[in-house]
């Protein structure tokens, strides 16, 4: 049965989400009793008051996680049993797909149809992928002398703090939880304060799937009050972080100030999409370019925010891009299944994006379309899809992560100039090229400073494809088998036989 806009509005009005933290298998209030409000950015209304965790709550969660880890209840559970729990966990998430869709759409404003097309399938795929690895991980026997046996065990790290952002609340949590839990770690998940609700449902479902108490804990609260004590905690073995570069750097500092815990970071980007004159299908390059920057309101780490177009096709590309943007992503109420673009996550994010639009105008870029708040939607945090043309790569709008629906088109002379311009950034998350020349494609793939590269595509991938950056886009790799190495450590075992 199709759920209509009216149905979703009725469900939203009747929603009573869980608002307490999840520690040691139970929902609990913050030790201080404090709460913070989470708002619906489409209306400005308060959705719920959520437990506002502090250092004491973090410590309770870490203590429970450590106890569970040492007990072996999860870390030494038979692999086939752990796999069965992870699979049931994924099945339960699928059964609750509508609840997750409603929670994340209300909390952060993404179109509800994106939840069904992107976030939920992406989360399920990742959890099922890592569940499959559980009984396939093995160690190594090395080639030592005959009078010794030496083997290398691969073991979980212990307690992993997972600190995630608000732009894909469920999916970013799943990308971290899936490898961490599959490897046998205990986790303390800290969702973003803008979007804490779906993490609490996740924790309940892990428990219902048979996940033992203390293995999966959720602490809700503000970054400074909850995330910081988690990252500074002396008994946390690893922080898996996704978020801004600014906070990513703090995570590395916190690790140095505490116990040298491992830190993997997945941070921001200013990802280039290069379009060469020999592109076979310019219309497809334009529609993919539009989706690459305006999808999820532009609040995407890999948003293709810098579009570098060879001069010979510059005007044609701008015209096609402008035409496509009119129909593909227009702001509307995110609970309406036909909506393709929701509000930005908070009034602060809306102001930040609008201030970058002002900066672009002052820097001399040409505002081709958008740039304002849609008149009929001024109760929410909406910003129109916006395009600047004639942008120079030195401008702030081309160098800084805006994290909103603002595209910059930059003319380039040729492939060399395009690669040089594309690499002229502190970031290195994703990059794409549109070309029919195989040599240009391979040159680009070799020379671009980015962790994720697409040729004649954008945002394509699945659970097998590593997700992570070069340079200040971070040092971790989510999804993919490589993630398993980031949630395990090796142990060298020498057995003297002589
Ligand atoms: P953010 O860095 O502000 O917050 C991320 C998380 O860190 C939140 O849970 C927050 O509460 C916590 N935090 C904030 N300050 C903290 C502190 N001092 N100590 C400990 N924890 C703290 O990022 P955001 O605004 O939530 O998300 C947007 C950013 O995330 C963008 O830069 C985006 O590019 C990035 N991102 C990257 C990826 C990726 O895979 N590379 C994916 C999604 C988002």
UniProtKB/TrEMBL annotation:
It holds the Pfam family Aldedh. Keywords: Oxidoreductase. SUPFAM superfamilies: ALDH-like. CDD domains: ALDH_GABALDH-PuuC. The keyword Oxidoreductase applies. Residues 27-493 form the Aldehyde dehydrogenase domain. InterPro entries: Ald_DH/histidinol_DH, Ald_DH_C, Ald_DH_CS_CYS, Ald_DH_N, Aldehyde_DH_dom. Gene3D superfamilies: Aldehyde Dehydrogenase, Chain A, domain 1, Aldehyde Dehydrogenase, Chain A, domain 2. This is Aldehyde dehydrogenase. It comes from Rhodobacter flavimaris.
